[in-house]
Specification:
By secondary structure, this protein is α/β, with parallel strands linked by helices. The protein contains 12 helices and 8 strands.
Length: about 300
């Protein structure tokens, strides 16, 4: 059997939060149902953050109330403070996710808190989630570059990783939030993260702003990473990062890793069909290339 690469589908949250379209709660739930039908078992369904900061995610409670509940499917949600994690727990999420930004300027823009304050907030969120028996995952974002401070020193990222590892998260992600990273940088960061968090599952989160996301995923795979975020169609972006485009497209990642000999448990044709449906709901095209070209060409 092929080795498994696990894909965490983030389109319902990280994808839709910055898209110009305003999907209804029913459309979001329908998207999640289609993702489940395509084989997804881990889906970032929504976030529980201030509706003033991210108005498109204001219906998180209603979305969670409508998702299909299957034993093999885990739903995660983003929470950035105590109130957020309390809402997430009440809504019945399976996993609570937090974010700590790697630079001070971006941290203030994204969370209105210093890096140190964000680390402490994560400690509180993690404690609350664990007390409720819910899994935890935390992301260090902007690890390859910051829209406000420019280049980010690897050691500053790894110092944050070491602090977060103390909370014993079930998973720790490194995110190239503005799509500035390259494979050599990514390989070094994940190798360093593994040294600082040897007992924690690592995950990659890449944006394709400068067309390097797939190369970065391949580099992370070479370091042993087997879990990656992606967004159906490549929709999304960070509303607090100027010029940040969407996450790497799920279809493109699935095609890449399948052709590399890995298994994902995902149906590529079903994902392509769901992307076409999503384009119709959004009212605009999406960046995914595999959605346009299809999978490996079959002989006629």
């Amino acid at each position: 059997m092929s080795e498994r690469i696990q894909i965490v589908e983030v389109a319902p949250r990280d994808g839709l939060q910055a898209d110009p379209a305003d999907l209804s709660t029913a459309q979001k739930v329908e998207l999640i149902k289609r993702l489940v039908a395509a084989g997804h078992t881990r889906i970032e369904a929504t976030s529980f953050v201030s509706p003033k900061a991210v108005p498109k995610m204001a219906d998180g409670d209603a979305v969670m109330a409508g998702v299909p509940r299957l034993s093999e499917v885990s739903y995660s949600a983003l929470a950035l403070n105590q109130r957020g994690v309390e809402r997430a727990i009440a809504a019945g999420v399976d996993e609570v996710c937090g974010v700590v930004v790697a630079t001070e300027a971006f941290s203030q823009a994204n969370q209105r808190a210093s890096v140190a304050e964000s680390v402490q907030r994560w400690r509180d969120i993690s404690d609350a989630a664990r007390a409720s028996g819910i899994k935890t995952a935390v992301t260090v974002s902007a690890v390859c570059g910051c829209p406000y401070e420019g280049r980010v020193e690897a050691q500053s990222v790894l110092d944050i990783v070491a602090q977060l590892a103390e909370t014993r998260p079930d998973e720790l992600a490194l995110a190239d939030t503005i799509g500035a990273g390259v494979p050599t940088q990514v390989a070094d960061l994940f190798a360093g993260a593994r040294e600082h968090a040897p007992d924690t599952t690592l995950r990659g989160h890449f944006h394709n702003t400068r067309n390097t996301a797939l190369a970065n995923i391949a580099a992370a795979i070479d370091t042993g990473v087997r879990v990656f975020d992606s967004s159906l169609g490549g929709v999304g972006g960070c509303p607090f990062a100027p010029k940040a485009t969407g996450n790497v497209a799920t279809e493109d990642v699935v095609y890449l890793v399948h052709e590399m000999g890995f298994d994902t448990g995902l149906d590529l044709d079903a994902l392509i069909d769901t992307t076409a449906w999503l384009e119709a709901q959004l009212g605009h095209g999406v960046p995914s290339l595999v959605a346009k070209a299809g999978g490996f060409p079959q002989p006629s």
